[in-house]
Hints:
Rossmann fold, 7 strands
Amino acid sequence: MEVPKIFGYIGLATSVLLLARIIKTVYIYIRPSSLSRYGKKGDEAWAFVTGASDGIGQGFAQELCARGFNVFLHGRNVEKLRKIQESLRKEYPTRQTRIIIYDASQIDASIDNIASQVGETTRLTVLINNVGGMGVMMPNTYTNLQDFTFEEMQTIISVNATFSAHITRVLLPLLFKNEPGLIINISSTTKFGIPWLVPYVATKAFAIGFGDSLSAEMRADKHDVEVMGVIVGSVESASNPAKPSLFTPTSRAMASAVLDRVGCGELSVWGHWAHRLQGIAVDVFPQKTFQDIATTQVRKLKLEQEQKKLK
Length: 311
């Protein structure tokens, strides 16, 4: 075979593969959501949202009620949750909500009691593992690994990883009982690696690995439970009071985008299409290059935080 023809075939194959990838990506963001599969009309299905007291968690509570689900609102601040519960009652009078109080930073065997709070007769079909953040470190969010205290590092890991793993373990039997079921694990673009947030970043990578393995286990054991990891970029919230924009959606818009991805067939997916556009950098550049770009931005935030602390 002539050399020019070989390169021609390689080019053609590459073009076909690239086109197929583009079509697949576009389809993920235009296809209808399969969320209704887990809460058919008149089914009285329930969803459990961790970290529902603000931010994306509150957005999930709003969107799930709007889409016909009753919602368990989990958090540690009862007053915040009651305000959200009252707001949901006014906006969605036909939906039910219940409050579950548990401090994700203080985990012990009592977490097993949450299953009884949910109840065997409640048709739980959806679990949103959303709780997380670096609030424990405020106002010193950006910290070198060696400068974390034991308590600080343990709290970050507990809130962002340990709690999600345990609450999934606790609620899985109920999801099995009410199959089909859905588990969504919220991760972050930070999972690709940035400095001065090492324990937090590690938990975001854990969320994807945990979900991938759990998905394989569900299929191996023939359970009809979909497990989807979601990569989230910048979102306007109480902890990130940025002005909403194309690449910084509101918390509710982010939650809506995530629910629209249900059933897309991917183990992990960028929740919002605008974040996926930004994620092209991860596909194109070496990971170290992406990290260097992110480091420049984080360094600015770290410096701003240090200057505020000195004032």
